[in-house]
Amino acid sequence: FYDESVTQLQHGLQAAFLARTNGATDEQVTAALLHDIGHFLMDEHDAQGDFLQEDWCHETVGADLLEPFFPTVIIESIRQHVPAKRYLCAVDPRYHDGLSQASKRSLDLQGGKFTPEEVAEFEKSPHHETVVLVRRWDDGAKIEDLEVPGLEAYRETVESCVR
Is residue 128 part of a domain? Predict the structure, then answer.
C-alpha cells in the first residue's frame, strides 16, 4: 500500500483499466499501467514513512529505467505525471479538491501548483495532452476492492509498444 486503499499493483491495473475503457491508445494504456513503476524500483513505501517527508522522484526513476524500451510518449507520460498534477492544480481550481489525501500531501513536496510560467512551459510539450490523461487515470485508480483484469490482460498491449 502507498497510503491509499489500494496496493501499487492494484493502482497500476486500475489506471490501465480506466485508460482502456476510455478508448485510449496502446501507448496510453501502457503509460497508465507503468506510470508508478518507480515506486516499485525504490521500494519507498516498504514500512517506511520518509517518502512523506521527501520527494524521491519516483517518476524520474521509472522513466529513466524504461526509456531504452518504450517510445517518447510513454516515457514522458511517466516522467511528467507528477508535474501534470501540479499543472492541473493551477489550471483547474476544482481539481485539487478531488485529489486523494496522499496526493494532496505529496503535492507540497513536489513543488505545489504551477506558476503561470510553468503552465505555459508544460503546455508546449507535444505529449502534454496524453500526460494529462494519464494523470487523470492515476487519480481515478484508487478504488478499494475494484475488480479489474490482471497483468496478463495487458501483455499484448505493452509488447506492442516495446521498441
Answer: yes
Give pTM, 2 decimals: 0.89
Residue 51 has pLDDT above 50, yes or no: no
Task: Give the range of the structural domain holding residue 40, as residue numbers without chain letter.
Answer: 8-161
The DSSP 8-state label assigned to residue 18 in this structure reads: H
Q: Are 27 and 161 in contact (CB under 8 A)?
A: yes
Residue 1 belongs to some domain of the structure: no
Of 66, 65, 86, residue with least CA distance to 131: 86
Judged by phi (left if over 0) then psi (alpha if -120 to 50, else beta), residue 20 lies in: alpha
In a domain, 2, yes or no: no
Each residue's pLDDT tens digit, 23-47? 999 999 999 999 988 887 776 554 4
CATH number for the domain that contains residue 57 = 1.10.3210.10
Distance, CA of 56 to chain centre: 14
Sorted by sequence, the CB contacts under 8 Å of residue 55 that are 6+ apart come out as: 106, 109, 110
